Amino acid sequence: MIEESGTIDEFLARHAADVEEAVRKAAAAEIMPRFRQLAAHEVDQKSGPHDLVTDADRKAELYLTEALGALLPGSVVVGEEAVHANPATYEAIRGDAPVWIVDPVDGTRQFVHGEEGFCTLVALARHGVLHASWTYAPARDQLATAVKGQGAFLDGERLYAGPPTPGRDLRVATSHPDYTTDDQKRALLGLRTEGVAPRPCGSAGLEYLAVARGESDATAFSWEAAWDHAAGLLLVEEAGGAHLTLTGEPFRITGGNPLPFTAARDAATARRVAALLASAG
């Protein structure tokens, strides 16, 4: 069991490559064999027709739960599908043990439709602090990684988000209206202004990667589920970006955030987007 936060750095120095291997193997064993091969009985709805789960989600999460737990004895896993089955397991994010935050297939809707815009997300945190993350898009064979204080990388190359291009509309990926309250819809309307080009988001993990790469300028999301955000938030931070809630504070993976919130390729853009959201909310 890890007793000091510093020893997480030691664990990562020894085993970051083993985590990467586990993520790749989970995708190879449980996700990609089902890509564009799903039978009707392998797809179910959770909260509604836009909230899907497949056998690939369930089996990849089980694979990662076993593999990651074995790599770091004493750690716990908070996975999207396990929390759906037992919401109380989400409380581990606020506990003392190191926690693996897992979304086995982020972008399940795209996966079900045979599109490549999905990924596997893994983050390692303790006491609400993100220490490392892995974002793997298996259909594209792209792996983005980040370690706190050590930078963000895509397939081994350093990522620098950098500031947006002057004079160009800000490209902002936003929550789909189906997943927003009336108050959140009003806040998101603040982005419908001159100089901003909002659009509905796809896979959250890949939207964060686009920000970290400087291909997109910001996100504006209205939900807190840590498995969707943890990996990407660290990736954006380590690429030089920032994230803010409506009250101007960084997003907390432990919850209780004013929503919507933004992650952006630099601090100035994060402040601008947050201010627009707050002014309309």
UniProtKB/TrEMBL annotation:
Pfam families: Inositol_P. Keywords: Hydrolase, Magnesium, Metal-binding. It is an enzyme of class 3 (hydrolase). Its EC number is 3.1.3.25. Coiled coil: none annotated. It catalyses: a myo-inositol phosphate + H2O = myo-inositol + phosphate. This is inositol-phosphate phosphatase. It comes from Streptomyces pharetrae CZA14. The lineage of its organism: Bacteria, Bacillati, Actinomycetota, Actinomycetes, Kitasatosporales.
